[in-house]
Design goal:
The protein is of the alpha/beta class. The chain has helices spanning 2-15, 39-43, 46-60, 75-90, 133-144, 163-168, 180-206; strands at 17-19, 25-26, 32-33, 35-37, 67-71, 95-99, 112-113, 121-129, 148-157, 173-179. The chain has a domain at 52-184: 3-Layer(aba) Sandwich (Rossmann fold), CATH 3.40.50. The strands form 3 sheets. The protein has a 6-stranded mixed sheet with strand order 7-6-5-8-9-10, with helices on both faces. A two-stranded antiparallel sheet has the order 1-4. The radius of gyration is 21 Å and the shape is globular.
C-alpha cells in the first residue's frame, strides 16, 4: 500500500498540484490559497484511476458495500474506479452512482442517478475536502434517498477549515488517500533535488580542465 500511495502522490504532484508564494488560487469556498489541487487532471490518467481503485479497495476490503458514489462531477470517476476494482478483485457488484447538484428538469428528476435501492450500504467518495461541504451534501442526499451511509473516502484532504471534523460529525468514518502535506512534502523534495543538481553542475563547471579525465 505504501508503494501505491507514493506513486499516486507522484502522479498528483505532476498533474494536479499547483503552488505559489502568494495566495492566488480561489477555492470553491471563496477563500484564496497558496495551493490548488485539480483532481480531474490526475483522474484523466488510467494509472491514477487504477491506483485509486486499489487503495480504496485496500482500505475497505473488510467492509461490505452495495453502492459507491458522491457529488457530481468529481466523485463519479472515483466511484466507477472503485466499483470496477472491487468487481475485478472479488467478483462482487458494487454499483456506482452520482448525486446531482440540482434535479433534472426533464425525465426522472431524482437527485441520485444510478441503480441504487433503499437500504443499500453505501460508500461516499469525493475528490478534495476543504470544508467538507460537497461531501456532506452527498451524504445527506444519499440518506434522504434511503441509502445507508457509514463510510467516506476522499482523494485529498487539505487539512484545513475543519473538513474532516465536519464530515465525521455526520456520523461516518473518514479516510483520505492523500493530504496537502503529502504533496507539499514532495514539492519540497523536488526543490531540494533541483538545488542539489544545480550545485553539482556549478561544481563541474568550476573544475579545472582535465579533472574528470579517467586515469
Amino acid at each position: 500500500m505504501i508503494v501505491k500511495k507514493r506513486r499516486l502522490i507522484e502522479i498528483f504532484h505532476r498533474t494536479s498540484f499547483k503552488s505559489s508564494s502568494k495566495p492566488v488560487f480561489r477555492l470553491a469556498s471563496g477563500k484564496l490559497s497558496e495551493y490548488y489541487i485539480d483532481c480531474k487532471q490526475a483522474l484523466s490518467e488510467p494509472e491514477a484511476r487504477f491506483l485509486i481503485g486499489e487503495l480504496i479497495f485496500d482500505l475497505t476490503e473488510n467492509e461490505a458495500f452495495d453502492a459507491v458514489g458522491g457529488l457530481e462531477l468529481g466523485a463519479y470517476p472515483i466511484a466507477t474506479s472503485v466499483s470496477d476494482r472491487i468487481y475485478c478483485n472479488t467478483g462482487k457488484a458494487v454499483r456506482a452512482f452520482v448525486v446531482r447538484k440540482e434535479p433534472k428538469t426533464h425525465g426522472v428528476t431524482n437527485l441520485v442517478a444510478g441503480h441504487v435501492e433503499k437500504g443499500d450500504k453505501t460508500l461516499i467518495v469525493d475528490d478534495v475536502v476543504t470544508t467538507g461541504g460537497s461531501t456532506i451534501r452527498a451524504i445527506r442526499v444519499a440518506r434522504q434517498e434511503g441509502l445507508s451511509v457509514q463510510r467516506v473516502v476522499v482523494l485529498v484532504d487539505r487539512e484545513e477549515d475543519d473538513g474532516r471534523k465536519n464530515i465525521e460529525a455526520e456520523g461516518v468514518k473518514f479516510n483520505a488517500l492523500l493530504t496537502l502535506s503529502d504533496l507539499r512534502e514532495l514539492d519540497n523534495d523536488s526543490a531540494q533535488q533541483s538545488n542539489q543538481d544545480a550545485n553539482h553542475r556549478r561544481l563541474v563547471r568550476n573544475q579545472p580542465v582535465g579533472a574528470f579525465v579517467a586515469r
